[in-house]
Design goal:
The structure is a single chain. The chain has five helices and eleven strands; from the N terminus they run βαββαβαββββαβββα. It has a nine-stranded mixed β-sheet with strand order 2-1-3-4-11-10-9-6-7, sandwiched between helices. A two-stranded antiparallel ribbon has the order 5-8. It is globular.
Length: 221
């Protein structure tokens, strides 16, 4: 049986179709979910894709968190179902309180768009079950506000609970502890700044993103 995975679309999202294609490649049925919908239907997993939701006005994700769909997303996450936020999606998840910390402007105040090596720090979450701890992936990044920050107590909690999902091999943006992805306490909500959907075809550079979507699909089952 094929599993339906929702892809939440805000005004300004621009990676939703890339995510849909990646989901199709791993055997899922993607369903676009518009930001003003209140019913997620029969989806078994969710992806909040990258882009510039509501133009990143105020700050990235600050307006998106008030969209009607977020009430359903928050309930979906609190029910223990798998949610992945990519880049702007990560920013939205922090603004909505589903993940701790915040994303601030990159160190050096430069927009960065290039592949980066990341290492897998845990298998205990919804996007890394098919990956070994310590394995390296080459994934594109594309952000100006991807510098993950949090207070010391939060970082200590992330480390203690094995909730740092990925780290940059060569920290490109100044993120604390080189963090590229984190999970919530229940490990079913993950935010990541790199774009796995842009690494799902050898013609585009690599297929290193496919295990992330396969893991998400397995969690959705």
């Amino acid at each position: 049986m094929q599993i339906s995975v929702g892809v939440v679309v805000f005004p300004g999202s621009n990676c939703e179709y890339d995510v849909c294609e990646a989901l199709e490649l791993v055997g899922a049925i993607p369903r676009l979910v518009w930001h003003n919908e209140s019913n997620l239907g029969d989806v078994r997993g969710l992806v909040i894709p990258g882009g510039f939701a509501h133009g990143d006005y105020l700050r990235p994700g600050a307006i998106a968190k008030f969209s009607r769909v977020m009430e359903a997303v928050i309930k979906f996450a609190k029910d223990g179902r798998p949610v992945l936020g990519i880049c702007n999606g990560f920013q939205i998840l922090t603004e909505a309180g589903l993940l701790p910390g915040a994303l601030q402007k990159n160190a050096g105040l430069r927009f960065i768009c290039r592949p980066e090596l990341v290492s897998i720090s845990t298998r205990d979450c919804v996007i890394t079950s098919e990956l070994a701890v310590g394995s390296m992936l080459s994934l594109p990044i594309n952000h100006f506000e991807g510098n993950y920050t949090c207070d010391k107590a939060t970082l200590d909690e992330l480390l203690q609970d094995d909730r740092v999902v990925m780290r940059y091999e060569h920290n490109p943006n100044g993120s604390i502890d080189s963090i590229a992805a984190i999970a919530n306490q229940s490990k079913n909500v993950v935010g990541m700044m790199p774009h796995p959907e842009r690494a799902c075809d050898d013609l585009l550079g690599s297929t290193h993103g496919l295990p992330i979507f396969r893991s998400l699909l397995e969690a959705a089952k």
